[in-house]
Write a structure and sequence with these properties.
about 90 residues, alpha+beta, five-stranded mixed sheet, binds zinc ion
């Protein structure tokens, strides 16, 4: 899996673009966790399957050009953070 991930505390306000989202048999399950943020218009998910157990920071994946149809509408952590800081 080559999903580009970004930490919750990342300061960048730019959306990370996944250059190539690989398709695999796990994609269907992964899709169920993916949510759509209406604020930045990106799909995102909390990344639980990455080897970041040692990290105390939650990791999130952002998907650009990802179909938002049928996805749960939920503001992403990055936008929540921006909103809280504004
Ligand atoms: Zn967002």
């Amino acid at each position: 899996m080559t999903h580009i991930i970004e930490s919750y505390l990342a300061k960048s306000t730019n959306a990370i673009t996944s250059k190539q989202r690989k398709r695999g048999n796990a994609s269907a399950m992964a899709d169920a966790r993916i949510k759509h943020c209406k604020r930045c218009n990106l799909c995102w998910e909390k990344s639980l399957n990455f080897d970041n157990k040692k990290s105390k920071k939650d990791m999130f994946s952002y998907y650009n050009n990802f179909p938002s149809f049928g996805k749960v509408k939920e503001m992403c952590p990055k936008c929540i953070r921006l909103q809280e800081n504004s």
